[in-house]
Design brief:
Radius of gyration: 21 Å
Number of strands: 0
Helix content: 55-70%
Largest sheet: none
Number of helices: 5
Order of helices and strands: HHHHH
Structural class: mainly alpha
Number of domains: 1
Length: 145
């Protein structure tokens, strides 16, 4: 992916135009249309159309969720390896205490600030949003879906 604008806490989220502005609206409109069709022409066929539309929306969200979960697993592994190389030996045994969401949030911290921020996350039980807000030198992640 080409280099984009500098990421920080206020702009790190992004939209996938095809997903957010085409696929989701099309399926939402389809669901609404099938419900209207069911109300105007109540029959088994109309009810089945609503069920298929709901199933399609569920499938779209589940497929998206699966991709994000796989990314979270990869990020978790990547950050554990990164922490194992950057943390003081005394803190390394505590890496497993970090939650998945904390590890995903820590990926934005630069190598220089990661050890201190990881220690804070462990000692203060920081929430992911607090971790992201605490990052001073943002390490961008342009590959996140």
């Amino acid at each position: 992916m080409p280099a984009e604008t500098s990421q920080n806490f206020s702009n790190y989220t992004r939209y996938d135009p095809l997903y957010h502005f085409f696929v989701l609206p099309v399926f939402t409109i389809t669901l609404i249309a099938t419900i209207v069709h069911l109300i105007r022409r109540p029959c088994l066929h109309s009810a089945l159309l609503v069920i298929v539309a709901v199933a399609a929306i569920v499938a779209v969200f589940k497929i998206r969720l699966y991709a994000v979960k796989v990314q979270d697993r990869v990020i978790r592994l990547e950050e554990r390896l990164r922490l194992a190389t950057l943390l003081d030996p005394a803190l390394r045994p505590r890496i497993s205490e970090l939650t998945e969401k904390q590890l995903v949030a820590l990926r934005f911290a630069s190598d220089a600030e990661l050890p201190a921020l990881a220690a804070r996350a462990l000692n203060e039980k920081l929430a992911p949003q607090e971790i992201k807000k605490a990052v001073q030198h943002w390490r961008p992640d342009y590959w996140r879906v």
